[in-house]
Write the structure tokens for this entry.
Amino acid sequence: MEFIGKKIRLNKPLTELDLLVLKFIRILEKYVNYVVISGYVSILLGRTRSTEDVDIYIRYLSEDKFLELVKEIYVNDFYCLNTDNPNDMYDYLKEGLAVRFAEKGQIIPNFEVKFAKKIIDTDLFEEALEVETEAGIIKISSLERQIAFKKYYLSSVKDLEDASYVEEIARGYLNQEKIKKYKELIKILMKDDA
Amino acid sequence: MMLNPRKDERMNFVLYWADFVRNNSDLVWGKQQKRLIDSLMQNAKYFPLNAKEYLDLKKEKHKR
């Protein structure tokens, strides 16, 4: 694994999960900018654990464009767990809720897709990293952001393990000031949530 | 503070594995990771809940 600026070059043999993620995001990126966040990021980078969902933030897109996206998702043998009505899916997203997509006939793993709407998400897309794999690029949130959210916001055992794992594999590459900045932003976010 | 030996054991493994990943080629650790993740993907096919049950459990909105 090589960390080169805003890219990570990964030469591992891809897992079935990685290939599924690549299949889904190849559809997604035709319509909208996306960033994969949270647990799958640490798994992509080598962590040995399961996950039932892959969290993806997308930029806001118009309803017409979203309907086209859903059509293509369904043509490619995925479906939405929440509803088969694309207008309802769009309403959920506008409400700030997530919609989940999975391969037809499957419940997990699924793709939990959300609009990036919060103030703290503003730089999510600009700060994203590109992970180059043998089958294509996967855009992930910056590792500093990933660590800060896992350590100071989510904070479950699994999240703390993910944060420590990423801190360890990316030692020497991480910008500690950025982690501090996200930590401060998270404090504000938690006050707003309370 | 109460110590949780299981939690410590898990974290030790996470750090051990991270060290292994840092110090070996992607091909070496990747093969081992692939074996595990692919078998978890096979298990996922037998997930016992349907979409409605799954989303109810997660308390998420749906129209199933």
In short: The mean pLDDT of chain A is 96.
